[in-house]
Design goal:
The model has no long low-confidence stretch (mean pLDDT about 90). About 50% of the residues lie in helices and about 20% in strands. Helix 1 runs antiparallel to helix 2. Strands 3-4-2-1-6-5 form a six-stranded mixed beta sheet. It starts with a helix and ends with a strand. With about 150 residues, it is an alpha+beta fold.
């Protein structure tokens, strides 16, 4: 279970840092909006405000996306053990290792590389519900599931 916890914690840290960046961006946009209000008038002023409003909407969407990812991560039971690949499974294959959770890229634990992937990615859709020794073909490459944690 140590590997699963380390992968989970790395995903959580990944989300926390993304959240912090977006919160700073929202704060910067709000400050800019307030200074726009205090400064010039006219068309240039309206364009500046419109651009900032668009930026704020985009940041709001990113914030919402991160909250959904956090909800997905919180659904993972680190103690659960399954014979089939489910959300939260660490899947070792003959080609690569995966952590089915959120898309957080490559994670190295004890010199072993894992890919944190969302359950909605094409590779995850292929391995979900599979068992040890099942063979999967993805992009003309075949690999076998060797271990599920």
């Amino acid at each position: 279970m140590k590997i699963k916890e380390a992968l989970y914690n790395t995903c959580q840290t990944f989300l926390d840092s993304r959240l912090e960046v977006i919160q700073h961006a929202i704060l910067d946009i709000q400050n800019a909006l307030q200074s726009e209000t205090k400064s010039s008038a006219g068309d240039k002023h309206e364009t500046g405000r419109a651009m900032l409003q668009l930026e704020r909407e985009k940041a709001g969407q990113q914030l919402s996306e991160i909250q959904k990812l956090q909800e997905t991560l919180q659904k993972i039971d680190l103690q659960s053990k399954s014979n089939k690949v489910t959300l939260g499974s660490v899947v070792k294959t003959s080609k690569a290792n995966y952590f089915v959770a959120i898309s957080a890229g490559e994670i190295k634990i004890d010199n072993t590389l894992y890919y944190a992937i969302s359950a909605s990615t094409p590779i995850a859709k292929l391995i979900l519900s599979k068992e040890i020794s099942d063979t999967i073909t993805f992009r003309d490459a075949s690999f076998t599931i060797t271990e599920i944690l």
